[in-house]
Write a structure and sequence with these properties.
mainly alpha, two-stranded antiparallel sheet, PHO1, transmembrane, transmembrane helix, EXS_C
């Protein structure tokens, strides 16, 4: 059975950790009470107590002398507890005020004061969070009401427009009937705009434009009325009558208020482009409409609906976290008070404090429960089509149950991989392809393709090890990365991906070798087909082989490659850090693209993809691309958070880019000057990286820490493990020294050395991942919010 203290520490929300009960601190105070009472009992065992001496004197005075009676132990026990019983009775008489009993013991009094402080802290934090969530709930319900009204108005007028269009089709010759307005055309470009006629309709009659403007004015009036009913005011604008007069005087144009709009935050390049296009269209319109007029079209209404749905999901998650906060703290107080009464025997003080906990707002308030039920009902009605299973899939996703089939498949693929690898090694040795006089072109293809997939498989395997360790130490990586529990990978899934990849790759290599020995001309098509198969599986739209994980990976890679245009999330920069350790993989992918896509081998030897200047320059670009992406992410976070540490972190990646550039120059011109430049730049970058690894990412070397060179809070019990990891990280950070040493070995040994160094870097990154997430779990160093704040679409603009 797991101790409650471990379960409690694992369940704590990182961002809210300071607001939780200091359970360990209260346990330490109870231990002090226990030690003091034990010492007092030991001292009283050697000396006779005052009650025993008084009893002996009473016996002697009663004429019993120094004799012994069988009732003496009973009398002694009664005399010893008599003062306590009397004191307890006095407390009951004076306890009508409801105040806590003040213990005469120093440590007991200290415990009660500390518990009272913790209770006040929990109450204050809960009240603050509850008020914030209730306010967000009210605003969100108003936003949903506005959206429903706008959609209803637009749908009604769309139906009216269709009816008018059918009448127009039967009477085209009648000039008094207006055709459908382009503001409500089927393309949906304008559902609601400034409602002035676009220039494309300038060739129509005045009566036609008047009819269109009248319809647009009616829509505008209804939308304005809907917004006003829901609390959106129009400050500094003329009344409706004046607006209508002004509209009729200017050819029927009606300007919507400039104080309200659908605001879609530019959180990605697509929305940013939409916002820029909107402003350009408003500015460049030639019909005289106000550029600041409200600009509402179908695309923005869809974005608004999605934003409100996401806001409901974030609000529901916040409510669930606050309920978890309440239940955990109630349970912590209950457990610690049981321990206290067991050690101190202060039953009345414990009962009074327990009643105080039960009367606290975080224990008795039901506002969060009511709002949670209301949010669930609204989401069920408006976003899930009254299907509760669909609603709960979004609001409260559950992790699926583990099955033994995955474990069986992991073992099957692993055994198959080992067997096929042995077969391939034997065939390759018999064919003599690994000899110095072997087929050089074949070795180039095999080395790059095998290394590419082997490094991917190794990274998946180490990620599976990370998932296993995080689960064993109760680190909630799904919460930290904001992954849905029902689609997040488990360690068994990661192991299955790793084993299946290697099994498929080695099977392809065996088939390729058989075809080559048989003299088939299409043998090289097998590695190319393997790459095409992998790309097709990654992009496959069907729900096979972890579709949600594949799409999440592609979405994160898109965010990384387009940095800094996307908002940086925890999963984004964590994946970007992985890419900085996969630079050899990117180079192997570059060679594979050159070989299989450019088709250079048909007219040129294989050295074309390794010796040409264009290839070398591209290799240089690939070497610092991951560092560039990571630096851009740091700059984006600095702009949003104004945290100077993000600039310092960007400087670390800039120093890595400089070191990579100097090493590239040294490989081209290996002179003593550039060798010293490599030593200086790479040493400086390594020291920078080691400092950031140990101090910032892992949280070590905390001043005045109770754990030497570490931090106060540690998850692993054995401190020696942390010191070994620090030494391993230090040694593997110095792998660049191999480029300066210029070891004289043949080409096959060089390939083996490069693959080994690349594998060691991935291993270093794998164990870096564990300590980085451990520090995030304990201290929330990334400063990410537990509850995301989703911007609401309908807002009132500030006016002068």
């Amino acid at each position: 059975m797991v101790k409650f203290s471990r379960e409690y520490d694992a369940s704590i929300i990182p961002e809210w950790k300071p607001a939780f009960v200091d359970y360990r601190g209260l346990k330490k105070l109870i231990k002090r009470i226990k030690v003091e009472r034990r010492d007092a009992d030991d001292s009283s065992a050697g000396d006779s107590s005052p009650e025993t001496a008084a009893l002996a004197a009473g016996v002697e005075s009663a004429g019993y002398g120094a004799g012994f009676s069988v009732l003496d132990p009973v009398r002694a026990l009664a005399a010893r507890f008599a003062p306590r019983v009397q004191a307890s009775m006095d407390d009951e008489e004076s306890g009508d005020s409801g105040e806590l009993v003040r213990s005469t013991d120093k440590h007991e009094r200290e415990f009660l004061e500390k518990a009272d402080e913790e209770l006040e802290k929990v109450n204050t934090f809960y009240a603050t969070q509850e008020a914030e969530l209730l306010g967000r709930g009210e605003a969100l319900i108003d936003q949903l009401r506005i959206l429903a009204d706008v959609k209803r108005i637009l749908a009604d007028h769309a139906a009216t427009r269709r009816a008018r269009g059918s009448l127009l089709g039967r009477s085209r010759s009648m000039p008094a009937v207006a055709p459908p307005s382009p503001a409500f055309s089927g393309s949906g470009r304008y559902l609601l705009s400034g409602l002035a006629t676009p220039q494309s309709m300038s060739d129509g009659s005045v009566e036609l434009q008047q009819a269109q403007m009248t319809e647009g004015a009616a829509v505008a009036d209804e939308v304005m009325a809907a917004l006003e009913r829901n609390g959106v005011s129009f400050v500094g604008l003329p009344g409706k009558k004046d607006a209508k007069k002004e509209g009729s005087g200017r050819g029927g144009r009606l300007q919507l208020p400039s104080t309200v709009r659908i605001d879609i935050p530019a959180s990605n390049p697509g929305r940013a482009a939409l916002k820029v296009w909107e402003e350009l269209v408003n500015v460049l319109r030639k019909d005289g409409a106000d550029p600041a007029a409200a600009f509402v079209h179908r695309k923005k209404v869809q974005h608004a609906e999605k934003n409100i749905r996401d806001a409901f999901m974030a609000l529901y998650r916040g409510l669930e976290l606050l309920k978890k906060f309440s239940s955990l703290n109630v349970k912590a107080f209950t457990k610690i008070l049981k321990k206290f009464v067991k050690v101190s025997e202060q039953q009345r003080a414990t009962d009074l404090f327990s009643q105080k906990v039960k009367r606290s707002s975080f224990s008795t308030s039901d506002k969060v429960l009511q709002l949670s039920d209301e949010v669930e009902a609204l989401f069920l009605k408006h976003f899930a089509g009254n299907d509760r299973m669909v609603a709960m899939k979004y609001l409260n996703p559950q992790q699926p149950k583990n099955t033994h089939m995955i474990t069986f498949l992991v073992g099957l693929f692993t055994g198959t991989f080992v067997s096929l690898f042995i077969i391939y090694a034997i065939l390759a040795h018999v064919s003599g392809i690994f000899a110095s006089t072997g087929n050089t072109a074949y070795m180039e293809v095999v080395y790059h393709v095998f290394s590419m997939f082997a490094l991917i498989s190794l990274h998946c395997f180490l990620y599976g090890c990370n998932l296993f360790m995080w689960k064993s130490t109760r680190i909630n990586q799904n919460f930290i990365f904001d992954f849905a529990p029902n689609t997040a990978l488990t360690h068994r899934d990661a192991f299955l991906m790793s084993a299946s990849i290697m099994c498929t790759v080695v099977a392809a290599l065996v088939i390729n070798l058989f075809l080559r020995n048989a003299g088939a001309s299409y043998a090289n098509a097998v590695p190319g087909g393997l790459i095409v198969l992998s790309a097709g599986l990654l992009l496959c739209p069907f729900n096979v082989f972890y579709r949600s994980t594949r799409y999440c990976f592609m979405r994160i890679m898109r965010n990384i490659m387009f940095s800094p245009f996307y908002k940086v999330l925890m999963a984004d920069f964590f994946m970007a850090d992985q890419l900085t350790s996969q630079i050899p993989l990117l180079r192997h992918m570059e060679f594979a693209a050159c070989y299989f896509m450019a088709g250079s081998f048909r007219a040129n030897p294989y050295e074309t993809c390794t010796t040409s200047q264009q290839y070398k320059h591209l290799a240089y670009v690939i070497s610092f691309l991951p560092y560039y992406w990571r630096a851009m992410q740091c700059l984006r976070r600095y702009i949003e958070e104004h945290d100077i540490n993000q600039l310092a972190n960007a400087g670390k990646y800039v120093s890595a880019m400089v070191a990579a550039a100097v090493r590239f120059k040294y490989n081209v011109t290996p002179t003593p000057f550039w060798m010293w430049m490599v030593l200086i730049s790479s040493s400086g970058a390594t020291v920078y990286q080691l400092y950031w690894d140990f101090v910032k990412d892992w949280g070590f070397f905390t001043p005045k820490s109770k754990n030497l060179w570490l931090r106060d809070d540690l998850i692993l019990k054995n401190k020696f493990t942390y010191y070994i990891s620090m030494m391993l990280n230090l040694v593997l950070r110095l792998a660049w020294a191999q480029s300066v040493m210029k070891i004289r070995i043949n080409k096959n040994e060089t390939r083996l050395l490069d693959f080994s160094l690349a594998s060691l870097e991935i291993i270093r990154r794998g164990h870096w991942n564990f300590y980085r997430l451990e520090n995030e779990h304990l201290n929330n160093v990334g400063k990410f919010r537990a509850v995301k704040t989703v911007p609401l679409p309908f807002r009132e603009l500030e006016t002068d």
